[in-house]
Queue: 2 jobs
Job 1
Amino acid sequence: MATKEKKKFLKGRLTLETRKSLYGYIFILPWVIGFLFFFLKPVIQTVQFSFSNLTVEPTGYVLEYIGIKNFRDAFLSDANFPRYLTASIRKMYTETPVILIFSFFAALLIRQKFRGNAIIKTIFFLPVIMASGTFMRMQAQAGGSNTRDIAAAMSEGMDAVPVLQSIRFQMILEDAGFSPTFISALTTPINNIFNIISLSGIQIFIFLAGLHSIHPSLFEACYIEGATGWETFWKITFPMISPLILVNLIYTVIDSFTAYSNTTMTYIYNAAFGLFKFGFSSAMSLIYFVCIGGILGVVGLIVSKRIFYYT
Amino acid sequence: MVQNIATVTKNKLAKAKNVLNEKVFTLRVKHKAKNWVWSFVRSIFLLGFAFVIMYPILIMLSRAFMHRVDIYDNTVLWIPKNFSVENFQIAGDMIQYWPAFKNSMILAITITLVQTLSCLLIGYGFARFNFKLRGFLFGIVIFTIIVPPQLLMVPIYLHFRFFDVFGIYKAVTGNRGINLLDTFSPFYLLAITGQGIKNGLFIYIFRQFFRGMPKETEEAAVVDGAGPFKTFTTIMVPGALTAITTVALFSFVWQWNDNTYASLFLKNTKVLPLTYEFLGMFTPEMAAEGMLTTFDTSNPYFIAMLRSTGVLMMIAPVIILYIFAQKFFVESIERAGIIG
């Protein structure tokens, strides 16, 4: 009896609003716990480790404060880190625009009605599955190329054959006596086609979902007013999709920086678990993260001003 | 006279009609031609891209079923002359396929279930309840997406190497924490709390999906006396099936392919992304069993062939799953619920 009354009393005291907000907290409670223990604490520890020398012993780990030595080492005495870092950044800004344009184009193509649409869609989203994780690395090793490409690659002194490369075409051009700059200008885009397409899966997915969410009445109005397809694209499709361009831009940048195939990531991992330089690795990952964060911030600021929000 | 005028006008009218018809006809032809040209160009583009995407799979298939004698045959390019499944045996031995497959499968399936459920709850909490810190906390969720796992790698590793909650274990036994490495529990702990692989993205997907669902059904359920959990299980979850399938698919695939966390937490437990490293390493017994000569084992073409086979064996489950789930997956795009 008493508990029931107490319950009633409690229920009466809490308004619907407070109760709802309480339930909200209950739903997200697991995430809050996870965030505190598996995210916030590790981040703080990474900062702490990066200023120290960490050694693991059977009963625990020992920290020894050494100031900013790890950071200095990363830039000044490590031979590879600055090189890998700049390479990663360069890769990001050369690939991202191409990926965005390609995925937008592909989404526009797939959206149209034609026979075999379902099959094409299935194939186009295959990279979402194939390009994630280890497959990219494996494909770089096992590769799509056939035995003759392997032979060609080995004669050129490469140990792995990336997929769909124009090695033989390159060799023909070389034999024909074209200058190396001309050859590389011609073949680099071709060599990157597979790379670009396999990195565009999620982006196509997002653009396509965005295209589907544009209300058909807008296109209808355009059609009645006599706008051409070109005008419709620039006046309707593009502005309506522009928020997703930002989303995709950010996703692509992150994807490029955190991909398994990224050399900086591998290097940071090996420094910790191959060479057991935990503190040094933490310092490098911190530098890397600050770079990512800075680039994302700048890009986001520039692009978000030009975005059209339809409310 | 009158008749004459009438016939003249008639003629004129007929002529005008003819001209008009002709014009309409040419317009129609032009339109048709334009359509035809466009669909032709479009098919070239689409088929080209589709080919590029399918190319690695096709060539892996072709090489996996090829007997190694075909390597030396210059007339064999795509279709093997000597079909054999020998490659599967050798590559399977190398990557210890069945034990690793079993472990990977158990891990991926359980993690998918746990992760999807926890992200579903969390996403729902962010979408449908108003609380003070909601905007701030959701901002953090987005932030967790952009942080590379490598930043947290060392502390997380140490955390599970010496696992302890508030120092209780240390207080009781005096040792520094339990070693949770080489078990699946680190994966589960991360998944339950929504901190696993790309879980921020999953939370985001669910939140956007639930935000798009009409408020009225939920209110009706509340008026009928259903609590928030009952509303969630009876109204919201059945409505979110497409989003759930999408997230489950992603979750399975990313877990199956994951190398970062697997190599962090597992040393002696075999899972496929880790045993893949053994591909291309021959053991003496293998050479005896498969009647391989030293020439074979040092032949890079043959090793490349085995690599293709190994990759194919690894991605086969994921591709099969994708073929079954792609209908939901594609549908979830058309529903456009995913992007709000």
Job 2
Amino acid sequence: MSNLYDLLAFEVVEGIEEGLFTAEEYVCSVIKRIEDVESKLHSFISLDSEGALSSAKLIDRKLKEKENIGLLGGVTVGIKDNISTKDIRTTCASNILKDYVPSYDGTVIRHLKENGAIILGKLNLDEFGMGSTTEYSRFMPTHNPWNLDYVPGGSSGGCGAAVAAGECTVSLGSDTGGSIRCPASFCSVVGLKPTYGKVSRYGLISYANSLEQIGPICRSVKDVVMIMNIISGKDMNDNTSISSSPITINDKSNNLDIAIVKELIDGSDDAVTRTIYSTSEKFKEIRCECNEISIKNLNYALPSYYTLASAEASSNLARYDNIRYGFDLPIDDYKWDNYFSNVRKNFGEEVKRRILIGSYVLSSGYYSKYYLKARRLRSLLRLELLTLFKKYDLLIGPTMPILPFKFGEKIDDPLKMYLVDINTVIANLAGIPAITLPVGFSNGLPIGLQIMAAPFEEQKLIDASYALENTINIQRRPNLI
Amino acid sequence: MISKDELAYLAKISKLDLSEDEAEKFPKQLERTIEYIDILAQLSSDDPIVLDLQEIKFDELRDDVINTSGGRPINKNLTEDGFLKGPKMK
Amino acid sequence: MSLVMIGLEIHAQITAINSKLFCSCRGNYRDLKPNTNICEICCGLPGTLPIINRKAIEYSTMISIALGCKVPNKIMFYRKNYFYPDLPKNFQITQYNVYGFSSIGAEGIFELDDSKKIRITRIQLEEDPGRIVYLEGGMNVRNSALIDYNRAGVALIEIVTEPDFTNPKEVRLFLNKLSLILEHLGVCDTLLEGSVRCDVNVSIKGGNKVEIKNINSFKEVEKAINYEITRQNSMFNRNIKIDSETRHWDDRKKITFKARSKEEEHDYRYFPEPDIPVIILGDNFVSNLQDHMPELPNQRFDRFVSKYKLSEHTSNILINDKKLADFFEATLKLYFSPMEIANFLITDFKSLIEDDIDSSDYLRNLKVKPAHIAELVKMIEGNKISRITAKDILVKIFDSGKLPSEVANNTNSFKISDEKTLMDAVESVFNTEKCAVEDARTNHEAINFLLGKVMKFTNGRADPKIAMRLINNRLNESN
């Protein structure tokens, strides 16, 4: 057997239940792995080794006493640091929350704990989820385990890197405009952005509420299914959550009608395009039909996304005034509005830019010019996609239009940075599920295939992904040491 | 074009103090972003339908029941009387 | 164009509600230690979401119906963005009407009286902010402020009218009627401290609109408007331009004063609240609610006139004091004599309680209950006691809470109808009032004098009819 930390989630649960190894042994292996590679990757903002070890011991004790250890008993989970964890510092990689310790667990965390998962620590991200590289983390950038000079993608870059490198079994990220799929693609792991409403957002620190979902980043499709079935469902603490049926792993994929989105191919680098085309050939091996189609409103998707996301962000981030929680900054002698401005200058530049853009598109002179138009495009795009899904089961294309890039390449030009999200924002605007699957490499840099489906058709995504995963043979583990 | 005055206004309603460096480079950066989203203007504006993604039925909403079992939501020290100290208002 | 135009923006807390609008903390935040009625949601902790209270929508719909508003099939919430330390999220979740309405009520018409209608622009449901506490010594000498979030998130109704009022009296009438409606619906106790607040806009002679903010009770509204009209008139007469501005009401000095200009520079950047889906009320929502909602004051008035045959005047007096009207109907259940009970309540009873009328609980704390009044009126109608005696007994039971029959027994207050006892009294009067007796034989008026004397002799307890017969008999006898 290879290293324990290499095991997939379902292998971990089976191994512990069958007594092949103890939960403690498994967690020790993961912690050792972190000790070995973390200095190169910087995936974690907070690590709770002691808590993880004591949770592991508890699982071993339960097993000895023939108690149920839960569907995820012993699985170590890294949590993006914008999901509220009781008594574990939750920073959003922002100086403004650097000392914030929540008093409550988000719904997904509660579900994980109830099912025996071990919360290992909090993973790095771009500040408040705004970015595509983790370079906007106010603490440090995370490095891509496949090549340390390259960005891991973002905003859930810590999640992508940690899972790819074996620093945790699985992780939970959040995806507002691609923040799960971008790092999953760049780090060659599987990432799912669920249908809007499938997973409770209670505890997810809002960047753009109407667009974002929590979702899993894993090393296999099977693990994604396992995690999804634990974290999804209607939640009384989130009025936007909706109940849905569980998903399963099916050994034979059904005959699916698949369409390649032409615009997504056209806008991509050649290396990416070549891999996507050759992957689409593989669909034929699994008895799926593959056509090429066009989405006519795609030109407007990214402008619409940035308008809406910034608008919501400008309002969501207003609460950080350091009055009720936050860091140490004496209030004496400040007039309140000066105090607020003084506190809030601790936001990073990108967050400030988005707040300013958000205030701009919502302000009285510009509301109908930008915000309302963006809403309208969103409706049109969703309608167009729903129509396409009447004909096709799945839409595919490259997750990212480009290969992972080096640090500093785009940081000085915000617009260039925004453009890397162009393929992923579609699913967020339309509220549909989208998965990214590792399908190849170019010059040692990962390439991901994005598959989108109609609302609540996660099962189709999983069927296609699972079949493809078994067909494609690529390197699964980066050579870190 | 975003002028420095306009930026100052946006910063004011957003309660953000901008550094000199930010005040210098933001107008151009924001301008580029706004030019980019200006493409939205090409969309027809007749009947600005807003197809809302989500609906919820009245019957599904929360019952009017008191539950005071929550945790301690304020992370800062309170005064003896239980008040939270805030900055002065005038 | 009328000389004076006044519009109102009224905020009323839904005080009848158990929990807050978006979380399960108590709706009744009063008398609690600061910051003990708070949770993750109403403190706006990162990652929390508003979970809307169904009852709040029901209550606000009832108010909308009562004020003649249209209630849409779907409602939405909006964010109103502004920074203030009493606002935990630095935005307020409220409602807003653009492109078709989405607030709980809109386009209402309210009949003030037969000749005057007030248009209701909209009614919206929103959350109350927390409280900033100003301690003795004033803000300026302190270097910080004190905040209490117990109130943050309490359900609040905003009622906005068109500027259809032309004088302060109409405003007072409207606010009285509104209070009565809220009381009848049982949704808002307007007498609770801080439960109602009012913003007023006033313009004269078609000039600029001046807004007066934060008038903290309905009583002060009329005073503020009167002050403002006088102020604007005197400016107008001196040819001073009246600016469109925001002013505040100082309820100690009874003047309005100009707000610092900064407070006016608001760009609220409204947009639909993403955390609350569109709420589908459904087609039958309003009609179902209408069938089950409490009786409104005007419906009650009609019922009092038609069912109890009360005069409009009497009905009005009762209904304008809901607790008295309730008391009246509770008494009727024990003894059905609407006119006698109504008259007794609005005269003798009301004159006794008038002093206490300001306290909201004056009837509940009263020792006299409907059972007392029922018994008392039954005794009057059964000819057991006189009306005068009844009033005396009422005074006595008011403090003691004893039953009227018990008091009547102990004080020998029942009417004397025993002829022998009354004959003794007549004899005694005939002996002492010889001149009057002589007079009475010729002058009928003097008989009443003798009756009066008999009544006085029996401490008012003599049955006047029997006494009169005995006097007449006695006069004839000695003839």
